[in-house]
UniProtKB/TrEMBL annotation, chain A:
One Pfam family recorded for the sequence: BPD_transp_2
Mitochondrion among keywords: no
Protein name according to UniProt: Amino acid/amide ABC transporter membrane protein 1, HAAT family
Keywords of this entry: Amino-acid transport, Cell membrane, Membrane, Transmembrane, Transmembrane helix, Transport
PANTHER family per the UniProt record, alphabetical: ABC TRANSPORTER ATP-BINDING PROTEIN, BRANCHED-CHAIN AMINO ACID TRANSPORT SYSTEM PERMEASE PROTEIN LIVH
Principal localisation: membrane
Gene Ontology cellular component list: plasma membrane
TrEMBL record, chain B:
Ranges where the Leucine-binding protein domain occurs: 44-405
Keyword Signal: yes
Keyword Ribonucleoprotein listed: no
Protein name (record): Amino acid/amide ABC transporter substrate-binding protein, HAAT family
Protein's organism: Loktanella salsilacus
Record's keyword terms, sorted: Amino-acid transport, Signal, Transport
InterPro entries: BCAA_transport, Leu-bd, Peripla_BP_I, TAT_signal
Family to which this protein belongs: Belongs to the leucine-binding protein family.
Pfam families: Peripla_BP_6
GO BP annotations listed: amino acid transport
Amino acid sequence: MDAIVLQILNGLDKGSAYALIALGLTLIFGTLGVVNFAHGALFMIGAFCAVTMQRLLSLSHTVIDPTQTDFLGNPLQTKVPYLASVFGAEGATSLIAWSVPLSIILVIPVMLFVGWAMERGLIKHFYKRPHADQILVTFGLAIVLQEIIRAVYGANPIQSPAPPMFSGSVDLGTYIGFQANAVVYPIWRLVYFGFSAIIIAAVFAFLQFTTFGMVVRAGMADRETVGMLGIDIDKRFTLMFGLAAAVAGLAGAMYAPIVSPNYHMGMDFLVLSFVVVVVGGMGSLPGAVLAGFMLGILQGFASMNEVKAILPGIDQIVIYLVAIIILLTRPRGLMGRAGVMED
Amino acid sequence: MSKSNFSRRGVLKTGAVTGAGLMLPTYLRAENHTGFTNAPTGDTVTFGFNVPQTGPYAEEGLDELRAQELAVEHLNGIGDGGMLNTFSQKNLDGTGILGKKVGFVTGDTQTKSDVARAAAQSMIQKDGCIMINGGSSSGVAVAVQGLCQDAGVIFMAGLTHSNDTTGKDRKANGFRHFFNAYMSAAALAPVLEKAYGTDRKAYHLTADYTWGWTQQESMAAATEAMGWETTQNVLTPVGAGDFSSYIAPVLNSGADILVLNHYGGDMVNSLTQAVQFGLKDKMVNGKQFEIIVPLYSELMAKGAGSNIEGVYGSMNWNWQLQDEGTKAFVKSFGEKYGFPPSNAAHTCYVQTLLYADAVARAGSFNPCAVVEALEDFEFDGMGNGQTLYRGSDHQCFKDVLVMEGVASTSGNANMVGYDTLKIVEETLRAQVEYAEDHPMFAGGALGDCNPGA
């Protein structure tokens, strides 16, 4: 039973990332009708915003220590963060340790700008082109973005630890009736789940309870009619692209302590996220979230040794099997709307 | 009166046959610079450095490339000569090889077998490379080694640790200086026994490809021989990223050791996540839970940060060794690039010099002459002590390092990965040697050397 609880937690955690990426994908598809294969790259850029924040806070000046030598026998050059002169050595260390949560203040403007630049600079030219063209151009853009990140940050994963107070694990079992040490789970993964829930709720609230959101939803349902009412729906949709990019970026930044950021992490998530969107139903925001969590939990269960003993390799294909079954039985996905990608 | 039986036609025939007969051994003789692939004709000989310049092991590949460039400089008499000064053989004097300057071209393997083969093929066919060196994956090494065998050039493998490279996939034209999974396990076992005792239950997470399989097999055999029980071996996809669903079952499996048969980014992520799940703080069966990473590299240690503290692993070589060869190489490399060389850089540097020396000793670039010169060749002064290139499988045998992850000793952020690994044991070569017919290396044969052309 403890193994099942652990895999449910893992599933919720993975599902959080899937849901956040799929939410952004669906927003873009639902508003602009664009199949954005560069969305995984936005997740990756978000993760590297966390790395950038860490580096910004760690900006240092060199101090030569004549009492020590480096590996070549030269006087040792040590790096002292500029922050240390303001907050002291301990204060600087503490601040740097909080770089991942602090990166949120960097992620939002950076990702809004990246999203706006992508949409205005490239993707708007492909609105009326076939989906195949959109896929090709956004996939190419994803490769360009990941190669830029590789050129700047290198190919190796870069460790971005969680703040010390969130970096350990918690014995959840004792809170839910299990014996001690039966259900131990990393604190940061719980934080990530909570953070995702807040972001998802905020996006839904924004769309549901604001005038801007209401217009966007109306535009998603019938773009032409909204346009005929004199509303500049294109401008709002461009902003939605920026919002979707920000959601992906936030998902990536907060994911950095879970999987060390590397330049190809976006591609790792991209295909799975598209499956999530298709299973949830193209254009359906609640469907994307529901499918994200559902597939995450299913993947967790399929990874259990007991399951793999019966069905070897099932953990690698379970998501695709479920996708096939759902598309055979519900061709529009779990919560898909009629008319989306059916023309 | 004597009668001569010679006719003009007979003399011509006999002469032609005799001439051809006399020419034949010359044609096959090693010092003749024709009759093999890419026989150098000008005043330059070209090496092909086939390393990952993009893809997940690009940093490692770029470090290999730095070392290879340094080796070429030293061969051509540029710089301080590095390990040429400490190498036990003195056939290389900084004037190139056999009077020819050394040039090189590079290929990008992308750590993909098909791409690596295409890059090697291009370097052989278009650039006229006489030797291919480098790489950071056993799958790639096996693929490129096969290509070089067919093409008739020498392959001096880079970072490849699978038993198969010089086991079932060994080839006459291929040579591996780097150690292998069996050697890692043989070196680690006594240290692990001393540190953790003989009554342990080990859970393995294993990368699902040739290197992972042989690493797991080797570790399981070595640790079971000292009394440990292997409770489970779970294969994980390469590049999984999030290993939580594989780590969670370890928590209540009854195992008190986790062996991570992962390399590169997978190792960085799986180790970090195992630590996040509290495994290093856990007590199981009345014992402290421990994690083992059989194969370490500096770049992995850098990525894993403080998570490697207290974790044992092994290395082929480390810049902190105090022999003269190591000091010379670290000085050359450090002064040129500003940081110490990795063990991937070391093996590629040494392989380049070993090839050059073999050519010099053979007096020829003919691959078959080089093979002959390298087989059962013993040398010293290259950082690993007395070393043997065994003729029967083309595997180098030398001392192996057991490492332990520690907190940074310098406090210098640029040295993380270099000074967060401590040498705890220099396992002697005799302890990691194995018989030529060892079952873990069975199923292959070198075959005949192929000079190509």
